[in-house]
Amino acid sequence: MIPMTLQEIARLLGAGLHDAPDPTAPVTAPSAVDSREVVPGGLFAATAGANVDGHDYAAVAVASGAVAVLASRPVGVPALVVEDVQTALGLLAGHALGRITPAVIGLTGSVGKTTTKDLLAQVLERHGPTVATDRSFNNELGLPLTVLRADATTRYLVLEMGASRKGDLTYLTGIAPPRVGLVLNVGSAHAERMGGGPADVAEAKGELVEALGADGFALLNADDPYVMGMAGRTRAAILLYGRSPEATVRAEDVRMDARARPVFELVTPSGRAPVELGLMGEHQVSNALAAAAAATALGLGAAEIAEGLNAARRRSAGRLEIVERRDGVTVVNDAYNASPESMRAGLRAAKALAGGRRTVAVLGAMGQQAEASRARHTEIGRLVADLGFDVLITVGAGDPLAMARAARGVAVHPVEDVAGAVTLATELIEPGDVVFVKASSEIGLGACARALAAL
């Protein structure tokens, strides 16, 4: 955070200072929207959610070291009172970013954003101070919080940018205009909010490359036709990445090791270098190439990029997180979220990891699939059968039951809830099994994965 006094921030935001005995008190640390994550010297942004109102925790935040609370009403402790906290937080972040000069990298896509962000951050950290999105804080609140963690020493600012509807990326890039814009793919996530189809998703995701200046770089996935269709929407130089021979940054001689981790030859304009990823699943090749393309645009060579990718490890929980139990059972926790694309990738990765071992899938609903939901769950059930899973436990009524009915030839066990999944899986799992757990985050199957891993 660029140090600023409460008085300076109040002028910038047009805020009223309330219960602040020292207007010259400096804000020197990042902001937080969770009172449990307050950093001494920072601000606490009091936002009102469906179940919790941050204003109720204002005193706790100040007691924990917050200099003041960014609030929509007086709260009895030092506060900057504004009409809209979210808007004010974005304005503050944009102003702070304007006072420093990091290379800003924005990335978006339907799947793979967080993994790609984590890979890219680990590559760039070897070459300069890097700030990257924490967890999946990629929305109207999360992005400003990330920006406000940057300071004058920051060389690279890696911003995961989510979009649940058209206009979201225009808003986020208005706060943090990127020099490098990276588009991963176009899938079904949030499709119903964007108009219903992949072309609508592409229109929304393409707002990222539209925000780039003529001196920027638009990094497009050569393997995704909808992403390639964005080429005419940007003034920036275009750099293609992917497994296609037409890609400037590409992977050749791709193979999988015994732990289902990709091994390939990285090809960039600066040369070639071998990559051995520490992440599971062939779909990680695309994520690694996306990170490599961004690093290439920032001037890194093939050998430097490969070194960073080879050393990179999983940073975010619930994404193909592997736990080996003492009885030889391998639990694969991929329950952070789920879409048809990520469900297919995860199932294939788990099956590849298993080799000839017995496989158990514990699957719940994929959210936000709208009218296509039943058909998409049916397709996943068929894939479970086609891949040769031995056991399928489906969790919940409705669409998971459609998944169960479609998994012909598999031993299928529907259960009502997460607790039932834990109980049944505990009974069915045998020593040496590979257990894959996945659903949309609201289903809560991460708790099932953690319980099974702890046995």
Strand content: 15-25%
Helix share, percent: 25-40%
Radius of gyration: 23 Å
What's the total number of strands? 21
Tell me the domain tally. 3
- CATH fold category name of the largest domain: UDP-N-acetylmuramoyl-L-alanine:D-glutamate ligase
Organism: Nonomuraea thailandensis
Function: Involved in cell wall formation. Catalyzes the final step in the synthesis of UDP-N-acetylmuramoyl-pentapeptide, the precursor of murein.
Protein name: UDP-N-acetylmuramoyl-tripeptide--D-alanyl-D-alanine ligase
EC number: 6.3.2.10
Describe the structure in brief.
This protein is α/β, with parallel strands linked by helices. Helices cover 34% and strands 21% of the residues.
Which key terms come to mind for this protein?
455 residues; alpha/beta; Udp-n-acetylmuramoylalanyl-d-glutamate--2,6- Diaminopimelate Ligase, Chain: A, domain 1; UDP-N-acetylmuramoyl-L-alanine:D-glutamate ligase; Protein-Tyrosine Phosphatase, Chain A; 21% strand; globular
Topology:
Layout lengths: L3 E2 H8 L2 E3 L7 E2 L15 E3 L12 H6 L4 E4 L7 E3 L3 H14 L4 E6 L4 H12 L5 E3 L9 H6 L8 E5 L7 H8 L4 E4 L7 H4 L3 H8 L1 H4 L6 E5 L3 H4 L8 E6 L6 E8 L5 E7 L2 E6 L7 H14 L4 H10 L9 E4 L5 E4 L6 H15 L4 E5 L9 H15 L3 E5 L3 H8 L4 E5 L2 H11 L5 E5 L6 H9 L2
Parallel strand pairs: 4-5, 5-6, 7-9, 7-10, 8-9, 10-11, 11-12, 12-13, 17-21, 18-19, 18-21, 19-20
Antiparallel strand pairs: 1-3, 2-6, 13-14, 14-15, 16-17
Helix pairs in contact: 4-11, 4-12, 11-12, 13-14, 14-15, 16-17
Catalytic activity: D-alanyl-D-alanine + UDP-N-acetyl-alpha-D-muramoyl-L-alanyl-gamma-D-glutamyl-meso-2,6-diaminopimelate + ATP = UDP-N-acetyl-alpha-D-muramoyl-L-alanyl-gamma-D-glutamyl-meso-2,6-diaminopimeloyl-D-alanyl-D-alanine + ADP + phosphate + H(+)
Function: Involved in cell wall formation. Catalyzes the final step in the synthesis of UDP-N-acetylmuramoyl-pentapeptide, the precursor of murein.
Pathway: Cell wall biogenesis; peptidoglycan biosynthesis
